[in-house]
Amino acid sequence: MSAPVRSRISAYAIATADSQLLLTRLSEASAVFAPGLWHLPGGGVDPGEQPPEALARELHEETGLELLDARLVDARTYTAHRLGVHWHLVGLFYAVEFTPGPLQVTKADDSTSEVAWMPLTGLQESSLSPATIDGLAMIRGGQVRPVPGA
User: Fold this and answer.
1) Burial class of 89 by CB neighbour count within 10 A (0 to 12, 13 to 18, 19+)
2) Residue 30 to residue 34: CA distance in whole angstroms
3) For the chain, how big is the Rg over CA atoms in Å?
4) CB-based contacts of 16-20 (< 8 A; 24+ apart in sequence)
């Protein structure tokens, strides 16, 4: 018997400031992408939830920051196999503005183990999720501009 296929829609934040990208590290509880990879803040849209609402919720859970504005930049699809499930994921990418503040993972025992600002120039693709690699391409392609003073 083949593994089940599950679909998921996720909303991701692309946040840059001072030549850095806001990233979260995936924990063992990550449902889709491998643990240990650096990933864009964000996650699954719950039934009945609008994508920007999901993005605000996930951004707060994973970074402690409050979303002020989100502009849809692009959408991509992914397939993955993790924990016996084949995934079809639709990722919605948003350029975001948020309230400044200290970074902290506010939802314990979830898919995020840490959060950090990472230099754009030092990121190694082998340590990034597929969604993060695509987010970087959007930054480099000029679709996302840095947030001044963030």
Assistant:
1) buried
2) 7
3) 14
4) 16/120, 16/139, 16/144, 16/145, 16/146, 16/147, 17/117, 17/146, 17/147, 17/148, 17/149, 17/150, 18/117, 18/146, 18/150, 19/119, 19/120, 19/121, 19/146, 20/117, 20/118, 20/119, 20/120
Token pair for residue 1? 């018997």
Q: What is the DSSP letter of 102?
A: -
Supply 41's token pair.
């803040």
Q: What is the pLDDT of residue 143?
A: 83
- pLDDT of 150 reads 46
Q: Is the pLDDT of residue 96 over 90?
A: yes
Whole-prediction pTM: 0.92
- Token readout for 11 is 């909303």
